[in-house]
Design a protein that fits this description.
The complex is a heterodimer. By secondary structure, chain A is mainly α. Chain A is built from eleven helices and no strands. Chain A has one domain: MetI-like fold. Chain A has helices at 2-23, 35-48, 50-82, 84-98, 105-113, 117-141, 145-153, 158-169, 171-195, 204-213, 217-249. In chain A, 35% of the residues are buried. Chain B has one domain: Rossmann fold. A six-stranded mixed beta sheet of chain B has the order 6-7-8-3-9-10, with helices on both faces. In chain B, a hairpin with a 2-residue loop joins strand 4 (72-77) and strand 5 (80-81). The chains are: A mainly alpha, B alpha/beta. The A-B interface holds A 144, 146-147, 149-156, 160, 164-165, 168-169, 171, 248-252 and B 65-67, 84-87, 89-91, 93, 95, 97, 99-103, 110-111, 114-115, 143, 145-146, 159, 163.
Chain lengths: 256, 270
């Protein structure tokens, strides 16, 4: 309860100072819109449907790219951890590519795929895949080898060991990697949407960029707010339950 | 398969080690962990293997468990060559090696789930039986990290007993526990051994512990690992680790242990 009150108080103070700053007349309203203007834009765009359709388009792109990233990242990560050759080849490549900010994929994607959905998908997959791969591989390699020995004495072999020992043992790392992958997917998609203007779908990134072109700062700030809210919701809905489970079962990590 | 037949004791088998040598190749050369070791373990016997670290006692246990293969020589369980791990020979490790993603019952049931011919209800009942045997029947839903060190080892014991092995291999299972908890577990393990009549091979570097638990104590010497001496402990059970008779036995073993460690020391200093 006290935690909820302190959170609410903090955000109220933040909004009030923002409102005060915009009313002070020190900054041009073009550069610093009042929170009320932002709220008004949100309300209007929610009513005319712009906001919903942009969010929907963005979420579809995000989930498709993120899904593909997980689909390849997790199995490749498992393989990389258990095979020395994979570790010295694919593992090294992943480690290198992971250091590349995902926005760096945009020029390449534009040249390869043009102004298409494929370009956008490619950037998101590249943003997700490598960090998920590395987190999975790290998780498996951090597993105490005694688990495997104990499992073997109880008659666990092959696929049973993969699904009942290796995978659950590395689950906290795996979910950590999925969380990081999600953040990276968001970042890459926003970069892609800002640079790739296509007619097949108008996403939040494009709405943001459009706001800049129109000098509509209320729109820019409103879209940023939406992106933050979606990020927070995803964290609470997708990842927090896992983290609570790990805290309860493993006794590690922190509770939210 | 009914619950009764699942809980009925499997006939304890005997282990036979014939001229087993095990050497490891490291960067600094070849280490002979076991040098031509032979021994027999009778059905239902409680055998303790004692010796300083590096004497190959854990290596021998791993070979019997099927987790390691001898470089030469033969290892037999019930007259059959040991080819990999089997639920007839369960292992209890020094680190509890419990799975943190499962609760206590889940851990005890891990091996049972791999055993065919049992319904899930029967598996659960078997797990409950063994949790009761180790005195943890109230902790079935507990998470591993919530347990004390001694309780973790009790769960590990229940997990090792659950598939109803005929041989229980224990690799310094109490080494990381405090003295008081250890003494309780000495009582428990003797009680469980009497109740379930398993063949137990117990590895330790604690001479008193070996004298307290074993029918027979084999003393190993290191570099290369060999059996140095054999002691029969014929004290009545349950034995108290602090009893005077037990101390006499452990003094005898310690004297033999000092004998060859000081010889080794002299050789090294020459």
């Amino acid at each position: 309860m006290i935690r909820a009150i302190s959170s609410i108080a903090f955000f109220v103070v933040l909004l009030l100072s923002w409102e005060a700053a915009s009313r002070s007349g020190l900054y041009s309203p073009v550069l610093l819109p009042s929170p009320l203007n932002v709220l008004e834009y949100l309300w209007q765009s929610a009513l005319d449907g712009t906001l919903w359709s942009a969010t929907l388009v963005t979420m579809q792109r995000l989930l498709a790219g993120y899904g593909i990233g997980l689909l390849f990242g997790i199995p490749l990560g498992l393989l990389t951890a258990r095979s020395r050759i994979m570790q010295d080849t694919l593992g090294l490549l992943a480690l290198g590519i992971q250091t590349l900010p995902s926005v760096c994929w945009v020029p390449l994607a534009l040249l390869w795929f043009g102004q298409t959905e494929a370009a956008m998908l490619f950037v998101v997959v590249m943003g997700t895949l490598w960090s998920v791969l590395i987190a999975t591989s790290d998780g498996v390699r951090a597993m105490p080898p005694i688990y495997l020995r104990a499992a073997r004495t109880m008659g666990s072999t092959g696929l049973h060991t993969w699904f009942n020992v290796i995978l659950p043992a590395s689950l906290p790392y795996l979910v950590g990697g999925m969380k990081q992958g999600w953040a990276f997917a968001w970042r890459s998609l926003m970069a892609a949407e800002i640079f790739v203007t296509i007619l097949t779908g108008f996403g939040l990134g494009q709405l943001l960029q459009y706001g800049r072109e129109l000098l509509a700062m209320d729109q820019v700030v409103a879209v940023m707010t939406i992106i933050i809210v979606i990020g927070l919701l995803a964290d609470r809905i997708l990842f927090s339950p896992w983290e609570r489970f790990f805290h309860r079962r493993w006794g590690t990590g922190s509770v939210k | 398969m009914s619950l009764e037949s699942e809980l009925a004791n499997a006939r304890a088998e005997r282990i036979e080690i014939i001229g087993v040598t095990k050497s490891f190749t490291t960067d600094r050369g070849t280490v002979v962990a076991l040098d031509n070791v032979s021994l027999k373990v009778a059905e239902g016997e409680f055998l303790c293997l004692v010796g300083p670290s590096g004497c190959g006692k854990s290596t021998l246990l791993n070979i019997i468990a099927g987790l390691d293969e001898p470089t030469s020589g033969r290892a037999l369980a019930a007259g059959q060559p040991i080819q990999g791990p089997g639920r007839d020979r369960m292992v209890m490790f020094q680190e509890h090696a419990l799975f943190p993603w499962l609760d206590v019952t889940g851990n005890v049931m891990f091996g049972l789930r791999l055993k065919t011919g049992l319904s899930n209800k029967e598996r659960r009942e078997v797990a409950e039986y063994y949790l009761q045997l180790v005195g943890l029947e109230k902790f079935g839903r507990a998470n591993i990290h919530e347990l004390s060190g001694g309780m973790k080892q009790r769960v590990a014991l229940a997990r090792a007993l659950a598939p109803n092995p005929s041989v229980l291999l224990m690799d310094e299972p109490f080494a990381a526990l405090d003295a008081l908890t250890r003494e309780q577990l000495y009582g428990d393990i003797q009680r469980i051994w009497e109740a379930r009549r398993k063949t137990i091979i117990f590895v330790t570097h604690n001479v008193r512990e070996a004298a307290c638990l074993g029918d027979r104590v084999l003393l190993f010497s290191p570099n290369p690992g060999r059996i140095q001496a054999e002691f029969h402990i014929s004290l009545p059970r349950p034995r108290d680790i602090n009893s005077v008779e037990l101390a006499r036995h452990s003094t005898e073993i310690t004297a033999a242990l000092k004998g060859f460690t000081s010889t080794a020391g002299r050789q090294a200093s020459e």
